[in-house]
């Protein structure tokens, strides 16, 4: 058996200790990294407050006006969708339209409308007309039939809808 010098033995001991330390560190990191990734995933799935920012509510940063559901009428609108629930059944946004109208036939979802600026004229299937201005709101129940008209001043509103599986 070959005998090692004290210096060689010390060097080998440092290498072995270093290797063991490195191995233990890698094992610990390997077990901690998935835990860290899980913590980060958990953090990203935390429920956060959704702010309805003043700029968009004031009509800024809403994008370009485009035909809105042209098969239902002649409205030209733009908006921002703030939030949809994970299942897509509940949503909230801000919407702005130039003058025009659209006809609902057997509305497929429930919607709350709160007028921020301008106005809306809602006419039901019996011809009964209801006007809404800033600070006023209404709820259209699923199945409602009638006309939404936007007068000359246009309209900007907050909408909250329960789609029941149909994202509007």
How would you explain this protein's 3D organization?
The chain is an alpha+beta fold. It has 2 domains: 1-46; 54-162, Jelly Rolls, CATH 2.60.120.10. The protein has 2 helices and 10 strands. The chain has helices spanning 6-44, 54-57; strands at 66-67, 76-84, 90-97, 100-104, 110-118, 120-124, 129-132, 137-140, 146-150, 155-162. The chain has a 6-stranded antiparallel sheet, with no helix packed on it. The chain has a 4-stranded antiparallel sheet with strand order 4-9-6-7, with no helix packed on it. β6 and β7 form a beta hairpin. The longest helix has 39 residues, at 6-44. The protein is elongated, with a radius of gyration of 31 Å. The relative contact order is 0.15.
Annotate the secondary structure layout.
Blueprint: H1 6-44, H2 54-57, E1 66-67, E2 76-84, E3 90-97, E4 100-104, E5 110-118, E6 120-124, E7 129-132, E8 137-140, E9 146-150, E10 155-162
Antiparallel strand pairs: 1-2, 2-3, 3-10, 4-9, 5-8, 5-10, 6-7, 6-9
Which CATH architecture of the largest domain would you pick? Sandwich
Global mean pLDDT: 82
| Sheet with most strands | 6 strands, antiparallel
The spatial strand order of the largest sheet comes to 1-2-3-10-5-8
Radius of gyration: 31 Å
Looking at CATH, the homologous superfamily of the largest domain is Jelly Rolls
Q: Structurally, how many domains make up the residues?
A: 2
Strand content: 35-45%
Q: What is the third-level CATH name, the topology of the largest domain?
A: Jelly Rolls
Tally the helices: 2
Q: In percent, how helical is the residue content?
A: 25-40%
Low-pLDDT residue intervals, each spanning 5 or more residues: 21-43
Order of helices and strands: HHEEEEEEEEEE
Tell me, briefly, the overall form. Answer: elongated
How far apart the termini lie comes to 84 Å
Q: What is the count of β-strands? A: 10
Query: What is the top-level CATH class of the largest domain?
Result: Mainly Beta
């Amino acid at each position: 058996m070959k005998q090692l010098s004290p210096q060689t033995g010390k060097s080998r001991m440092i290498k072995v200790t270093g290797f063991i330390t490195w191995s233990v560190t890698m094992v610990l990191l390997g077990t901690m990294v998935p835990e860290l990734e899980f913590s980060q995933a958990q953090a990203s799935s935390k429920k956060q407050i959704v702010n309805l920012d003043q700029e968009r509510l004031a009509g800024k940063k809403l994008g370009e006006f485009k035909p809105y559901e042209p098969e239902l009428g002649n409205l030209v609108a733009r908006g921002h969708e703030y939030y949809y629930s994970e299942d897509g059944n509940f949503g909230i946004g801000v919407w702005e339209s130039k003058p025009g109208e659209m006809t609902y036939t057997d509305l497929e979802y429930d919607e709350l409308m709160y007028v921020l600026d301008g106005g809306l004229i809602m006419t039901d299937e019996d011809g009964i007309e209801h006007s809404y201005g800033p600070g006023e709101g209404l709820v259209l129940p699923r199945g409602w039939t009638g006309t939404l008209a936007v007068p000359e001043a246009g309209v900007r509103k907050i909408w909250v809808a329960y789609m029941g599986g149909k994202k509007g």
